[in-house]
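Lab meeting, item 3. Inverse folding demo.
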């Protein structure tokens, strides 16, 4: 809920807020100043039932439990996407795979629907805040089976998830025949938003894996899985 005292007589007005899993163990309060010095609105993020988190795990017994961290054949990959539905609700999903892109973990969030007042107050920062600070953070906190070596994303905005995951994050897409931008390798282009260290780490993994697996295909799988589980959560 959003509460604030405004107007004459100190009348208390309650406004609906995101019901998200963001920051469950402590409310984050964002004061927004009104035109009158005596009027102030505080936005509190709280846990609620209208926007929960559903997680589905897949165990792959053929993947080695231990590795030295240097061999890309034993790399753990993650794919993160945060699309919007037809009603402008925010969705999100993560697929963690082994080096052959076989699933280890799949997690998704049900639609987050900001209220009109929240869209106004957050303005242009809304998309980043919801996708990075709410969706990406919760998907990470929900107990991944292991921390990935790299997180691939399908939009430039999601590269900012680097601050959440603490591992290299790169936008990855298939290289068109006449590509002249990004970091060029034989099959793919990738972008780490200028992070040189991440660029080298991502380049090493992609270069060693691209000849044996389709590194873009997991994005298509996530989209199909997301459609299916949101159509029938019981699945």
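The presenter then showed the designed sequence:
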């Amino acid at each position: 809920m959003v509460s604030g005292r405004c107007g004459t007589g100190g009348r208390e007005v309650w406004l609906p807020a995101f019901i998200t899993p963001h920051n469950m163990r402590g409310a984050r309060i964002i004061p927004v100043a009104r035109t009158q010095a005596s009027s102030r609105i505080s936005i509190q993020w709280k846990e609620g039932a209208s926007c929960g988190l559903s997680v589905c795990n897949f165990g792959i017994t053929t993947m080695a439990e231990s590795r030295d961290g240097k061999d890309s054949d034993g790399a753990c990959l993650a794919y993160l996407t945060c699309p919007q539905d037809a009603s402008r609700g925010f969705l999100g999903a993560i697929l963690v795979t082994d080096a052959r892109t076989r699933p280890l973990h799949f997690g998704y969030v049900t639609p987050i629907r900001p209220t009109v007042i929240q869209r106004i107050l957050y303005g242009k920062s809304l998309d980043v805040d919801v996708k990075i600070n709410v969706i990406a953070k919760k998907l990470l906190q929900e107990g991944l089976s292991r921390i990935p070596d790299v997180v691939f994303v399908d939009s430039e905005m999601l590269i900012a998830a680097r601050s959440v995951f603490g591992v290299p994050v790169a936008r990855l897409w298939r290289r068109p025949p006449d590509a002249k931008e990004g970091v060029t390798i034989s099959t793919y282009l990738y972008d780490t938003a200028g992070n040189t260290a991440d660029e080298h780490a991502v380049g090493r993994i992609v270069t060693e894996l691209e000849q044996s697996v389709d590194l873009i295909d997991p994005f298509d799988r996530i989209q199909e899985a997301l459609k299916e589980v949101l159509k029938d959560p019981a699945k």
